Amino acid sequence: MKALRFAILGKSHLAVERLQAIEENENARIVRSFSAAQVARFKTDDWAGLLNRKHIDAVVIALPADSAADAARRALLAGIHVLSELPGGLTVEDIINLREAETKSDAVLKFGCSLRYHESVRAAEDLVRTEPYGRLLTARAVYGHAGFPGPDARQHGILLGHGIHMLDLLHVFFGPFESVKAMAPEGPDGQANLFAILKSGSGAIAQLHTSATSWRQTFRLELGYEQGYVWLDGHLPGLAAYGPEMLIHAQLLPDATGAPQPNPEETVIEYRHVAFAAHELEEFLATVRGETPLRHGTSRHAFDAMNIAQRICAATETWA
Predict the structure, then answer these.
(1) Helix/strand/coil percent split, the chain, to 5
(2) Pair (52, 128) in one structural domain
(3) Can you tell me the distance from the alpha carbon of 21 to that of 219, in angstroms, rounded to the nearest whole number?
(4) How high is the pLDDT of residue 188?
(5) Do 85 and 163 have their domain in common?
(6) Which of 49, 161, 215, 298 has its CA 20 to 30 A from that of 308?
(7) C-alpha to C-alpha distance for 88 and 78, rounded to whole angstroms
(8) What is the DSSP letter of 263?
(9) Is residue 75 located within the same domain as residue 25?
(10) What is the pLDDT of residue 256?
(11) Distance from C-alpha of 216 to C-alpha of 239, rounded to nearest angstrom
């Protein structure tokens, strides 16, 4: 099969990783690249010239959220495969429109749910699926950055521009959420910090704090189960200073009376290298070739993340 020809629209930290993965894969190559400023100046005939299947097969979209959905929809309707970063748009309606375009097209639509490809996350999924941890009860999730990580977070708030990746990861372990409560500071600081409480259909509850004033950059997901806990702490690569990346887990051991003993013995695994972009690209290429369906980054996953993000924003109270 010929190497899939990619155009890159826009630039971001994650797009750089994806670009490198394409360059290192013999089944993919980059034939065109455009900055977000160049894309913003496109006219109708520019789009028609770019989205021509004679010249390209797929696009990687790393555009601001307010223009990403339009670019992805145009590509799908032209029969061009799409790999778009989260959130992929600004509203649930944007994602619904992309899902409709997906059904009308023979092209693949995939969203960059990059955290799902981290080895620590995959190992955590295996643990809770194969070991007797019991029912998921709670989660504490913190995703904090020192300042706004990019224009989307600065313009649209830290939840949509950054925290949505943690929301996507919470869905991996919880599934869809039913109830939402949220609070943020009043005024401009409300864009920089948001606290949310989410309840799943099973009754499990997740607490989320996403922040642009986390001067010690923090990624942590603490999953509490009936018979133990699984923690994800730190991540690589992308935005700097989130490492090291660790998986910490422990199972409860009862004492002689059957009561749980506190502070069970932990297993700590540290990860020094993450090749999320290479794994993501391989899945994308396999789906384009018709070999396997998408497992991660489907339009349903993007819808779930955007839907709960929008519901959090609608439910947010401000605290003077």
Answers:
(1) 40, 30, 30
(2) no
(3) 24
(4) 73
(5) no
(6) 215
(7) 18
(8) S
(9) yes
(10) 83
(11) 13
